[in-house]
Every structure is written in C-alpha cells, then in structure tokens.
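Can't paste images in this forum, so I'm doing it all in text. The chain is below; anyone willing to post the predicted structure tokens underneath?
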Amino acid sequence: MFGIGVPELILILIIGLVVFGPGKLPEVGRAVGKSIREFKKATTAVTEELEASPEKPRREAKAETKKEETAEAEAK
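Text version of the structure:
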C-alpha cells in the first residue's frame, strides 16, 4: 500500500522506541490503532451513505430549487 517493507518497518519501530521510550510505545500504538479504526468507520459510513442515495442530475436539482424558490416567494 505505502511501499513499506520489513527493513523500513523495523527502522520506524526503532525510531519510535528511541523517541517515545519503551513505556509509552504501547500507548502510542493503541492510540494510532484507535485513530485508524475510527477513520475506517467514518469512511465506510460516508461511502455507504453516498451509495444509498444517488445524486440527482444537476439540471433536475436546479429545476427543483427554482420551483421551491418560486413557491416560497408566492407564499409570502
């Protein structure tokens, strides 16, 4: 996906260990995992919502908007 191989992954883990230390590293890992999980849930929800409600063609949407504006103007 990102082109990260085993050597790059080991290097990232070593840098993380040096920067955060062995005590904080599990907490950082949990936080990153939780963030990725929430992001996936959000993108899945948006994708499902877009697939469930197909967009109207722009001309129809504009025509409906003009009809609604005309009806509101007449009601006033």
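The chain has a mean pLDDT of 81. The chain is about 85% helix and 0% strand.
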